[in-house]
């Protein structure tokens, strides 16, 4: 079966430049984008039930932009004035720069890693005297907690947001040659919205080991598992697969 249509379960890339657009032009594909999941913040009532006082902490660990957004949302909703002395430890430079949306960047103590939590841990170890707060989602990486516990610092997790299935009822069907998933939550959303979904001849692509496992556990047959040694990105993996399939 030749691949002519692909549905990517993520938002459409902003701007005119994207590897997906290049992929579509190269192979004359129809590539649609639709987020299968979205993030919702917990309410202030739910946060109060955790009995966490943000002002008890001297540093915040941010592992994503969502964490940044919902930390400052909760502070605003609860009328908490975050002190200028608060330190911010971000997993990447881009997450650190994103803080400019909420604070005067050059006047704050901001530290960042190289997109790897282990690298951020090395920085945090130099500031062990602080009391750390780590905003996170309902589903979060246990390995991060394990690393923080291993260096014996004072830290607390606080759940500020959750990933939920988007409403896809406006999609009359899923008659695409290929579906592309990036998270276990995206796979769950597929079956929540389409409980009678049958794969039949639809090809499935997944990114990451946990997404692949979620797909196979749900009974899906995988055709593309990214990243691969010769295809570190999803678009590169799709390119190789489409070339193989469309030669037939």
Which helices and strands, and how do they pair?
Layout: E1 5-8, H1 19-27, E2 30-33, E3 37-41, H2 44-49, E4 59-62, H3 65-77, E5 87-90, H4 93-98, E6 109-112, H5 117-124, E7 131-137, H6 142-150, E8 154-165, E9 178-181, H7 184-193, E10 203-207, H8 209-217, E11 224-226, H9 234-246
Physical arrangement of strands within the biggest beta sheet: 3-8-7-4-5-6
What is the chain-wise order of helices and strands?
EHEEHEHEHEHEHEEHEHEH
* CATH topology call of the largest domain: Rossmann fold
**Percentage of β-strand residues:** 15-25%
Output the radius of gyration.
21 Å
Overall body shape: elongated
Q: What's the architecture of the largest domain, going by CATH?
A: 3-Layer(aba) Sandwich
How would you state the average pLDDT, rounded?
93
What features would you describe in this structure?
- The protein has 248 residues and is of the alpha/beta class.
- It has two domains: 5-36 and 175-246, Rossmann fold, CATH 3.40.50; 40-163, Rossmann fold (3-Layer(aba) Sandwich).
- The chain is 33% helix and 23% strand.
- The protein has a six-stranded mixed sheet.
- Strand 4, helix 3 and strand 5 (87-90) form a beta-alpha-beta unit.
- Helix 7 (184-193) packs parallel to helix 8.
- It is elongated.
- The termini are close together.
- The relative contact order is 0.16.
- The mean pLDDT is 93.
